[in-house]
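Researcher: Re-running this chain for the archive, since the previous output was lost when a drive failed. Same request as before.
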Amino acid sequence: MVLDHAIAANSQTELTDQCKSLQIDESELENELENRIENLDKLLHSVHAALEQESFSRKTHALDLVIDIRMKIKASHRMLQVAKLLSEPARESMLLRVRNCLNTLEEEFASHLGVRMT
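Model: Regenerated structure tokens:
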């Protein structure tokens, strides 16, 4: 009987430790995603300001790309806000979806606007 309680206590402690570890990992992921969104937004703001000062034949097209990317950045930020409100397993799934969206968005940003993402 005492052994059963010890095993149950150990199992509970292990589960608690695993949950704490997942919370830390998710917190780190949330911070990473927030930082990436913020960096993309700042970079886009700089590109937009530079485009506004220049005059060239395809300026309208370039500004359309900036607006498109800005909307995608805002959508990613809102998805992250929703993910923070969810509980597991939906939370993790949504965080991974936001990360995938940001990966795609950074690639799109780099290819269309000639910016190298590091």
